[in-house]
Amino acid sequence: MNLSEKTIIKATKWSFLGEIIAKLAAPVSSMILARILAPSVYGVIASVNMVLSFCELFADAGFNKYIVQHKTKDDDEIHKIINIAFWTNFVLTMLIWLVISIFSKPIAALVGCPGKHLAVIVACVNLPLHGFFSIQSAKLKRDMDFKAIFFLRIVTLLVPFVVTIPVAILTRNYWALIIGTISSNVVQVLSMAIKLKWKPTLYFSFSKLKEMFSFSMWSMLESFFVWLINWGDVFIVTQLLSNEDLGIYKTSMNMVGQITGVISASVVPVLLSSLSKLQDDNQGFKKLFYKFSATSGLILIPMGVGMFVYKDLMCHLALGDAWSKGATLMGIWGLINSIAILFNSFNGDVLIAKGKPKISVIIQVLQILVILPAVYISAKISFECLSYCRALIRIVGMIIYCVVVYRLFGISCLKTLQKLFPAIIATTVMAAFGVLCINLNLNMICELISILICIVIYFGVLLLFPSVRKEYLPNLKSLIKK
Hints:
Shape: globular
Number of strands: 0
Distance between the termini: 13 Å
Structural class: mainly alpha
Strand content: under 5%
Helix content: over 70%
Number of helices: 22
Radius of gyration: 22 Å
Order of helices and strands: HHHHHHHHHHHHHHHHHHHHHH
C-alpha cells in the first residue's frame, strides 16, 4: 500500500469517526427537542433557515471548494488565497446581514413567518460565523487533516445538551434552536482558530480575487441551485400547507439527512480532496472513484432499504407520535437519499475535482425544472403524494449525473452497480426478512430485535461472496489499525 492510499484511509477513518459520533449525537438531541417543541415551532425554524441558508451561499462565495481543489506552488500562495477568501467573506457577510436587517419584515412575510422578523435578524448572526468556519475547514480538508476536524467536531457536540435543550425547556419556542445554532457556530470558530496555524493578515489582491472568482463563481452558482433544490420546495410548501405540515415535512427530511449524513458527510469531503489531487491521473482517478463508491455502497444500500422497511418505527423513535404523518416521507426519502449519495454527490465531486463546475450548474438547473413543478402539483393533492413525489423525482438528477460523467470521463454507473452486486443481493434477503417481521405486527421491542437480526443476515450473506472477503476485509483491518 503506497503513501497516498495510507493517507486516504487515515483521512476517511477520522472523517467517518467524526461524522458517526456527530450524527449519533444529533438525533439524540433532535429526539429530545421534538418531544419538547411543537411541529409548528419547526415550521418557523424551517422558514428562518431558508433565508439563512440562502445568504450563506453568497457569504461562502464558493471559495471553500477553490481552496480544496486549486493547485498551488507553495504554502505562501495558499495562505494568500485563504486571506483573500477570508476578507472577502467578512465584507460580504456584514453587507448581507445589514440588508437582511433592513428588509427583515417583508422577508419574514415572504418565507411564511410574518411577525418573526427579529428571529430572522438574530439568526443571521450565523452568517459571519459560517464564513469564518468554511474557510478554516477548507484549509484542513485541503491538508487531508480530518483528524483535527474530528476533534473539533467533538467539541461542539455538547452544545445542544448544554444550551439548546435547557433553553427549549425554559422557552418552549423557536428561540432555543436559534440560540443553540449560534452557540455551536461560535464554539466551532473559536476551536478552529486555536487549532489552525494560519491567522488572517491584511494581505489582499484584487487581481488574485478575480482569478479565484472565475472558478468560485460557478461553484457558487452550483451551490445556489442546490439550495433551490433543497429549499425551493419548502417555499412552495409554506404557501400551500400549514406551519405544522411544513415542520413535519422539513424535520422528517432533516432527521433522515442526519442518518445518511454519517456516510455522505464523512466520505464526500475526503473523496473531493483525494480526487482533486489525482485530477491529472485519469487511471488513478477512476480507480479511486470506483473504490469509494463500492465501499460506501456496502453501507448506503442496506441503510436506505432498512429505513424504508422500518419507516414507522423510525418515525416513532426519532420524533414521537405527534409526527406520525412524516413516517412515509422519512422512509422513501431515506431510501432515495442513500442511493443519491452514490450517484449525485459522488458524481458531483468528480465534476468539481476535474475543474468542471459549469457542468454541475447546468445539471442543477435541469433538476430544478423538474422538481419545483412536481412539488407544486403534488403538494396540492396531498401530503403523502408530496412525500413520494419529492423523493422519487431525485432519480432524474441521478440519471443526468451518470450520463454526464460517463460521456466526459468514462466513469460508468453500471460498473459501480456491478461492484455492488453482492450488496444488492444481501440487501434483498435482508429486506425480505424485515418485511416479514413488519407484517407480523410485532411490538416495538421485537421490531428492534428484528433490525439486529437483519444486520446479521445482511453481513452474513455479504460475506458469502469471495470478492467481498478478498477486497474489503484487508482494508477494514488497515482502517482499524491506523
